[in-house]
TrEMBL record, chain A:
Pfam family for this entry, one: GATase
InterPro entries: Class_I_gatase-like (IPR029062), GATASE (IPR017926), Imidazole-glycPsynth_HisH (IPR010139)
Pathway: Amino-acid biosynthesis; L-histidine biosynthesis; L-histidine from 5-phospho-alpha-D-ribose 1-diphosphate: step 5/9
This protein's name: Imidazole glycerol phosphate synthase subunit HisH
Compartment(s): Cytoplasm
Keyword Lyase applies: yes
Assigned EC number: 4.3.2.10, 3.5.1.2
Residues at the catalytic site: 76, 178, 180
Annotated source species: Mucilaginibacter rigui
Swiss-Prot/TrEMBL catalytic activity: L-glutamine + H2O = L-glutamate + NH4(+); 5-[(5-phospho-1-deoxy-D-ribulos-1-ylimino)methylamino]-1-(5-phospho-beta-D-ribosyl)imidazole-4-carboxamide + L-glutamine = D-erythro-1-(imidazol-4-yl)glycerol 3-phosphate + 5-amino-1-(5-phospho-beta-D-ribosyl)imidazole-4-carboxamide + L-glutamate + H(+)
Automatic annotation (TrEMBL), chain B:
Gene that this sequence comes from: hisF
Protein name: Imidazole glycerol phosphate synthase subunit HisF
Assembly with partners or alone: Heterodimer of HisH and HisF.
Keyword Amino-acid biosynthesis annotated: yes
Record localization: Cytoplasm
Family the entry assigns: Belongs to the HisA/HisF family.
Amino acid sequence: MIGIIRYGAGNIFSLTAALDRLGIDYGMVNTEADLEQYDRYIIPGVGHAGAAMHKLEQTGLVPAIKALKKPALGICVGMQLLTAYSEEGDARLLNLFPIKTLKFPHEGGFKVPHTGWNQVYPEKENPLFENIPSGSHFYFVHSYFIEYDQSFTLSSTSYINKFSASIWHSNFYGVQFHPEKSGIYGETLLKNFSKI
Amino acid sequence: MLAKRIIPCLDVKDGRTVKGVNFVDLRDAGDPVELAWNYSQQGADELVFLDITATVERRKTMVELVKSVARQINIPFTIGGGINEIADADALLNAGADKISINSAAVRNPALIDELAKAFGVQFVVIAVDTRVMGDKNIVHLNGGRLPTEKQTLDWIIEAESRGAGEILLTSMDHDGTKAGFDNGLLTLVNNTVNIPVIASGGAGSVQHFVDVFQQSNVDAALAASVFHYGEILIPDLKSVLKENNIEVRV
C-alpha cells in the first residue's frame, strides 16, 4: 500500500483519483509513526519548491524521509525536493540526489512554463518504465527543471535543453511530469511503481 | 518534441452539456463526464469546460462537475465561467481542476490575475480573451462578444502575461461560429509577442484549418467545440493529418 506524504503542498485529488481508478491502495502519511504501515511512498507537490520545502520541514518528516529504505516516488515539485538545491527560492532541499533544480532560460520560441505533452526517453533499464514505449508523451507543466545527469537521470526530455524527466537512485524515484494526468502511459507508470 | 494540443470545449449548464452533441456511442449525450471520457479515449490532449450556470448554486455545481471529471479522466482539464474570486479558484483546485480560465472578472479587476498567480502559481491561471475587430483595431469584448471594452486586445494580453497569466485562450468572435478558419493573423501576432502558451479558438471548420493555424501562427494549442461535438472532425483523423504535415502531435 502506498503512503502519500501530506505536507500541504498542492491538492492531491487528481492523484488519489488516478490511484482509485487503478485499484491501487493508498493512505496518508501525516507523522513519522504513519510511515511504517506502508510499503512505498509518493511525495506529491505543486507550486513553489522553496515554499514546499519549508512546509515539509515543518512536518518534522525530513529525517525519516531521508532515511527511507522502501521505494519512494516524488512527483513534479515532490521530485524537485529530492535534489540538493532549487533556484526557485534559492532553496536547499533534501539532497538525496546531488544535482540541481534550475530555471528554464528565456530563449527565442520557447515558452515558459513548459506546458503540455512532451516525449520521454528512458536512458536506463528500470521497472518504472516497463510497458511504456520510448518516446511516449507525458504531461508536463513546470518552469524549473532538474539538470541532466548521467548517473541519476532515468529518462530524459528535451525542451530548451535536455533535462531529467525522471531520476532514480537506489529506492528513490522522481518524475517531473504528472503521471496522474498523462493518459494510459501515466497510469502504467503508477501501476509499475505500485509493484516495484 | 512538445506536441501541439487539440482541445475540445464543452459548454455546461447546471451540470449538463448545453450544445447538441451527436456522438453515436453515448448513452447520455448531456453528461459532460461521459463526453469528456469519450474525448480522452479519442486522443484529446486536454479539455475545457465552460460553465454557464447562472444560479446561486453555481460554485457548488461547478465543484461537483470538476470532482466527477477528475475522478474519471486521465488528461488535464480547465474550468471556466463565473470565477470571480480566490475562494472560487481554491474550491476548484481542491476539486481536481488543473487550470481555471478567467475572462470578464480579470478585465474588470486585473489585479485578480496577480492574486491568483501568487496563490496558486501561474500554471493554474488561463486568461480567456474574446476579441472582435472594431474599425481597424482588435478590441476585448465581454458577454460572449456583445459588450466592447476600452482595452485593445494585444495590450490586454501583454498586461495579463505581466500580471501572472500562465496561458492565453484567445477567441476571435469574428471567426467564432463561421467555420471559415482561425484568425491566423492575430494569433501570429499574439503568439510572437508573448512568452506563455497560446490556445487558438474560434472558426474551426475543417481539418485544414487546424493545419493552417499551427503552420501559420505556431500557437501551442487549438480549441474547438461543434466540429468535435457533431462528429464532423474526429480527433484521430485530425491528428493523423497534422502528423502528415509534420506538426508534432501526441498519437
